[in-house]
Amino acid sequence: MSLHEQKRVAIVGGSGYAGGEFLRLALGHPHLNVTQVTSERHAGTPVSLVHPNLRGRTTLKFRKAAELDEADIIVLALPHGHAAKRIGEFEGKARVIVDLSADFRLKDPEVYQATYGEAHPTPDALGNWVYGNPELHREDLRGAARIACAGCFATSVILALYPLLKLGVLLPKDIIATGLVGSSAAGASATDGSHHPERAGSLRVYKPVGHRHTAEAQQELPGHFPLHLTAISTPRVRGILTTAHAWIPDGYSDRDVWSAYREVYSQEPFIRIVKVAKGIHRYPDPMLLDGTNYCDLGFEMDLDTGRVVLMSAIDNLVKGTAGHAIQSLNIAFDWPETAGLEFAGLHPA
Amino acid sequence: MSLHEQKRVAIVGGSGYAGGEFLRLALGHPHLNVTQVTSERHAGTPVSLVHPNLRGRTTLKFRKAAELDEADIIVLALPHGHAAKRIGEFEGKARVIVDLSADFRLKDPEVYQATYGEAHPTPDALGNWVYGNPELHREDLRGAARIACAGCFATSVILALYPLLKLGVLLPKDIIATGLVGSSAAGASATDGSHHPERAGSLRVYKPVGHRHTAEAQQELPGHFPLHLTAISTPRVRGILTTAHAWIPDGYSDRDVWSAYREVYSQEPFIRIVKVAKGIHRYPDPMLLDGTNYCDLGFEMDLDTGRVVLMSAIDNLVKGTAGHAIQSLNIAFDWPETAGLEFAGLHPA
Amino acid sequence: MSLHEQKRVAIVGGSGYAGGEFLRLALGHPHLNVTQVTSERHAGTPVSLVHPNLRGRTTLKFRKAAELDEADIIVLALPHGHAAKRIGEFEGKARVIVDLSADFRLKDPEVYQATYGEAHPTPDALGNWVYGNPELHREDLRGAARIACAGCFATSVILALYPLLKLGVLLPKDIIATGLVGSSAAGASATDGSHHPERAGSLRVYKPVGHRHTAEAQQELPGHFPLHLTAISTPRVRGILTTAHAWIPDGYSDRDVWSAYREVYSQEPFIRIVKVAKGIHRYPDPMLLDGTNYCDLGFEMDLDTGRVVLMSAIDNLVKGTAGHAIQSLNIAFDWPETAGLEFAGLHPA
Amino acid sequence: MSLHEQKRVAIVGGSGYAGGEFLRLALGHPHLNVTQVTSERHAGTPVSLVHPNLRGRTTLKFRKAAELDEADIIVLALPHGHAAKRIGEFEGKARVIVDLSADFRLKDPEVYQATYGEAHPTPDALGNWVYGNPELHREDLRGAARIACAGCFATSVILALYPLLKLGVLLPKDIIATGLVGSSAAGASATDGSHHPERAGSLRVYKPVGHRHTAEAQQELPGHFPLHLTAISTPRVRGILTTAHAWIPDGYSDRDVWSAYREVYSQEPFIRIVKVAKGIHRYPDPMLLDGTNYCDLGFEMDLDTGRVVLMSAIDNLVKGTAGHAIQSLNIAFDWPETAGLEFAGLHPA
């Protein structure tokens, strides 16, 4: 790799929040050069009209997907279901394809069908895709040509649970995880539910049971245990705070959770364990993570009952989507893993 | 009037925020009996599905406007421009009509045309309508059969300025008023601008110049002076905080403003002068007014420059729309003026 | 009871949010006449300076507790621990005492000590107090002279679970409840954690394990099962949304939950079951309840796993504190149960 | 200058928001090496406990100011009034001193006294300080050893008005500017007014007249005209949106404002003119600027009345304080002017 290597990136479906966030991060990345952004609705318009934070940062204009030229990397930021159906359009155009949707995350076509309610259009291709979670699949990501970025809620659940399940710190009992989710997770299109007067003060359970990310999380997490996800919308715009209730064996203590996290994550650049004895910032809080690629993890234990409350916080658009994708590309191309992801986050925020 | 007199009310266009708020207030009013609520889109649906605060409060269902039966009072809560065009549909159905839109507020058809960009469909009828601002038109409202409810921003401006202009406490110089407005003022329909992620953190100037309520305010306010309105949207859902910069003659002081407000408003049940020397609630704040019919007024003077900063706060949906309408009906029917408008507001809120 | 009966009320510790909310409700109550409000810090000051929503509603001034005169009802709104220590001061001053704190809720002094970390100062008196939850203790409340108002988070948990546990709809397995709580629950005093820049955007787990309301909830709920509570602060000011994960026996379905709720709550004036198939207001949402005495309940079932997600929403200061107290007094004095609690809540809000 | 030159920075008073923000920016700056941060209250504590966004970013601990060692640059982030009184402590410790307070901004000791109510402790030193506004004083900043950072509200006013006043596009009439300000502007200490339940929903006029930044703005702006400032707090944490009402001569139009801004600001890296014909992001909005050093400017004209509404948006802690300081240092040391200030801002946010 040359110090000055730059790869040409095309973002397909770049007017939404995931595509816009990838664009923001890529514009600040030393090895990425965004040369094309597509949007059917906004073709011909400067991208900075749709992503006003990028005023003065880029002169790119949206083009139609049909006008896509060659690139080194194509990033698909299409609505769920579209990437799989249209993958043929893109495969000849770039060596590396990153998909931000759910289309290529699940390995088992039957699980896909059970989860998304229709047969996968290219079931044989599923094996070619690496699940884009750097902490679990760093080795697979090196040199990868197909990266299926992990889902945001799934990421917050997986990163909290993985070390503990891997190292046997949890009992194989029901795990109940609740995600408190910001409004950006539902995308850039206005709906009745996203109308500000209906949403600004709301705490709204939008997926009490049957959340689709359950399948992803179960695919990635070791062991057999029932996993239950509930999702609640909050007045925040970005961020997910997940609390997961799990069960530790008799005789286990804080130390065991600490050491499991340390063993698995001590070298991870974007995982921080947040568990402070006093003050107001004792546990993970998505307030501190807007724009960052961190996943902050914390926990507290109830020794009387064996319950451990795991907590994880991420920015759903960064560590939950676009930052994840950048981090995966950094690994795939052997660039410094934190390249383009240096933002520390704001306080106060 | 019997103590138990009840008038039948029909609300036309009852699925929006103005109609819903009128309905909420009317359901708690001793002399109003809402018998019909129309909505083309929701006909057949219980009103409490659209206005979920009314669960358990009413079993009314929406009907189509074409099915409207007789009533004593019809309240029109239609989009601007519709009431005037369709007024013929309603005139035979009830003795009293209250319009919550801007259609019948302006007396002068030419001003209407200049303001709203089209000729008024029934210019000759404009003289029949009383401008529904109880503080200025209480006598005209007694027994009135046509009430055109004052606009929300206009109300906040008029109530702050009226006593001072009437009693000569202000110089005939430019008055600059800025309204900080909640998102409910733009209505119940989702738009790109009302999408929560775009609106939650926004401070957005949406009408720097040319606000249509200027015409209303100038019609109602005594004297000749240039009035300039600017409207900015805020992260609140309800409420308007207006600050108006005006100019006092040499030698005038706080006392003159106080006494003008007292002279004109001392008997007003919904006007409060808020000007406290210390503490955190020194001036009007819409935070305290959600759901109430109050207009809180305050001011501060800069004796060095002759500038006085007038402040007024209202709930745009109550004192700015539906509460105003109820208060006007209370006067029209000689009911206690505060009937149905007793809610004190919340603290904290 | 005379139609015009009025009882004199004294509020002790009336400058906080609980006392202020009781005052607001009592001022609108046909049978309550607030004659005294105490505050050591604000003695001599008009109550409306501290509770600015009450401007123009009352001319009461705070006095010191030492100056307390006789009343019919004393409402104690003191910090936890103070009411029990000072109860002797108040017992001769009024026949009926209502305590809004946690001091007299627990029947068992040992549980009190285990929960609050010190011996109860008047353990023998605990039996005289009725737990102020009207839905569970209506008969005990009739004529009661000592009412210990239920805690806010406890109330939201108890009301969601009680019918299902009573009627055997739940398995005796772990129940995990998460409360999303507004900032007013922490009281009226500014702290590092309540500083707006630190709190406005925060989702902060403040009590992952060991919440004190566990003891209350377990005292009141029938059956033996492990109950786990987690509390998270949200950007809202008022309101609690509780989701409780519990387990249903094989073969049970929605119908069983519905019928349990109906059997127990069908006559309850402040309980609403909210479970709508479509639209954006499908489940309980505290957004709709600010200022109201409602507890909205909902649920959703995962038949594959036997998990049921119960949801309950309240305003922590009303159904969670002061409204609860008013409702209990209405029962104690045989007044209409909804007297003073008629506010429907706002939409939008 | 070497490509790898690094200057040692000491931040005095580093536990507040201004100092914390400077620290965040400095940690990402290629030429700044923060070696010391002082806080009397937190001495001995890791800075990341107070500024939790910096977890994993620095191992610095607070020390007491008395333990201050030599540095190349000292940044004073002390409460207003302290820097001037204690300046002697710092002058021998570093060649370059940057003050973030108001202490050294005003050139005229009499204006200082009239504004801040006490005599300046070192009036003779005032002439040594450069007013830290890069757009107006770039040449003075080159090599400067004393930089008094411009105030946040003053900056938003000055940058909007300066080109128009300089080039004669405005009449010498009253200019009325309203600043909508986030809660972080009041600092990191909890107060009654910053208590979340009292602030979250508030729109609070906190300085209707007599704002101290008037003196700064008048010192920096060319020409003689009355300037009136009003400040209102909003529910945002960061950001200022200023609207200024000014007056244009007959015959002037949009073009004149455009060309004045272009003439003065076309080379400015942090000034953007935002005036878009359609869409929802037509004017400056602080929502888009959190964490960035931009000042976005816009305007709209009312040709009928000659009023122009100027709009400016900044992040009060960045372009209004710490970013300004970094930009000034970049100029002083001849580093690239955008070094350390590259963050584009988030959308959505």
UniProtKB/TrEMBL annotation, chains A, B, C, D:
GO cellular component, one term: cytoplasm
GO biological process, one term: L-arginine biosynthetic process
Gene name per UniProt: lysY
NCBIfam families the UniProt entry points to: argC (TIGR01850)
Catalytic activity: [amino-group carrier protein]-C-terminal-N-(1-carboxy-5-oxopentan-1-yl)-L-glutamine + phosphate + NADP(+) = [amino-group carrier protein]-C-terminal-N-(1-carboxy-5-phosphooxy-5-oxopentan-1-yl)-L-glutamine + NADPH + H(+)
Free-text function comment from the UniProt entry: Catalyzes the NADPH-dependent reduction of [LysW]-aminoadipate 6-phosphate to yield [LysW]-aminoadipate 6-semialdehyde.
Organism from which the protein derives: Deinococcus arboris
Similarity comment: family membership: Belongs to the NAGSA dehydrogenase family. Type 1 subfamily. LysY sub-subfamily.
Binding positions (NADP(+)): S15, G16, Y17, A18, N316
Known pathway: Amino-acid biosynthesis; L-lysine biosynthesis via AAA pathway; L-lysine from L-alpha-aminoadipate (Thermus route): step 3/5
Domain Semialdehyde dehydrogenase NAD-binding: 8-144
Protein name: [LysW]-L-2-aminoadipate 6-phosphate reductase
Record InterPro entries: AGPR (IPR050085), AGPR_AS (IPR023013), AGPR_dimerisation_dom (IPR058924), AGPR_type-1 (IPR000706), LysY (IPR037535), NAD(P)-bd_dom_sf (IPR036291), Semialdehyde_DH_NAD-bd (IPR000534)
